[in-house]
Specification:
This protein is mainly alpha-helical. It contains 21 helices and no strands. It has helices spanning 12-21, 24-28, 30-36, 40-68, 72-82, 91-122, 131-142, 145-164, 167-196, 199-207, 216-228, 236-241, 250-278, 287-299, 304-338, 342-363, 372-377, 381-406, 410-417, 421-446, 454-477. Belongs to the sodium:neurotransmitter symporter (SNF) (TC 2.A.22) family.
Length: 481
Amino acid sequence: MSTHNVWTHKGTFLLAAVGSAVGLGNLWRFPYLTGENGGGAFILVYALTIFAVGIPILIAETMLGRNSRQSPIMGMRYLTRTHNTSRAWESIGWLGAASAFLILSFYSVIAGWAIHYTWQMLTGSLSGADAETIGAGFDALLASPALLTLYHTLFIIASGLIVAMGIHRGIESGLRIMMPALFVILLLVLGYGVANGDFGAAARFLFTFNIADLSLEGWLAAMGQSFFTLSLGMGAIMAYGAYMSSEASLTRTAVAVAFVDTAVAMVAGLAIFSLVFGAGLSPGQGPGLMFVTLPMAFAEMPLGALIGGVFFILVLGAAISSSISLIEPVAAFLVERFDLTRPQAVTTMVVASWALGLLTVVSFNIYAEGTIFHALFGRSAFDFIELLTNIFMPLGGLLIALFAGWALTHAEVMKEMRTSETWFSIWRFLVRFVAPAAVAFVFLRSIPQIEGYLIPTIGALVIVGAFAAGRTFLIDHSQEQ
């Protein structure tokens, strides 16, 4: 694979970035957070932080990818060399690759559950089932390592096959079919929810402006969501940016990605909660909403089995569009660094991540308790791996903002952004000061939730590491700036 491949169509990066951003979190986390934290008030805070944090870092990460035209790891190696900065900044690429690898390992397991429910819906197995039956079915799924491993394997193979086919025949062709189909399915489910559910209750839950319900935790959730929802700091955006046409506008594309990602989450929320409230059920967050509450709603509605099957195909498609973006950064690095063919690189990445995913599989059953992870960290292997990604991604995003804001010259940024001096000045101020401070605040605010000795250890490492890297960088560039 050439490291200078470019998407065939200028709009493909938008599809790729939206595909990476739109995942399971849009369908079960964002709508619930919105409803529980003041509705419109939460959306307002989210919109402000998307503008001040999400979009500036999205532009920065894309810019680093397009500037280097290489995988995140090799690209950061190239950029640190050409900008005479400390090689410590290469950690941006490694943090992104590590995040992608770890996330894929457990994301594939959870996304695999949708295979189970697609089959159950389309075969009518859940038609007329009561709450106890559906809840017991979900518990039985989690209790079966064999079933979880089967679905985990099928999902990760499907994702790997798309990436292994290449940038154009695989990822680009897949996204150009998959993303429009997902939007059509989402609108179909919304129409079904309006016709058969309680659309008014869903709209009130999501959009009633209630500032009293927006606590400090709600603010932090909105700020964190603005970062995590755009897939920042995990290498995907930088990897996709390396294939982005030089003519495509960074600013317009970043704004479009943020808008479409948010719109999908809102439409999904209206569709899902119309069904939930229409069936007289209580909204909840996380897997329970997707795999227990929604099947209960579909079981009670006309044509519920068919529409439920279509909905879980939507879930699968959204998950695959995200998972291929997790494979690409590491696969591209293996191709560039070790001269592997793309199928070899993808196979290496997928097999390793699949093997790590087995720890998540057994975290729900055989080793739910009493493992070395519980003894050392007070949590399951799955929870510990997820914790690591919640550290690596914000740290990577923080460093991306600082590097793009301070290392890239005015001429480089203007060449990439091709924008007015006013917007350039706003972007540079946001990416140098506001975005790093916001990401650091959300990140460090979450550390007290970590049990035991991990609190001082991780806190000290993060703070010392960030200050050391920043000090090295600012010394290197004090004269230039």
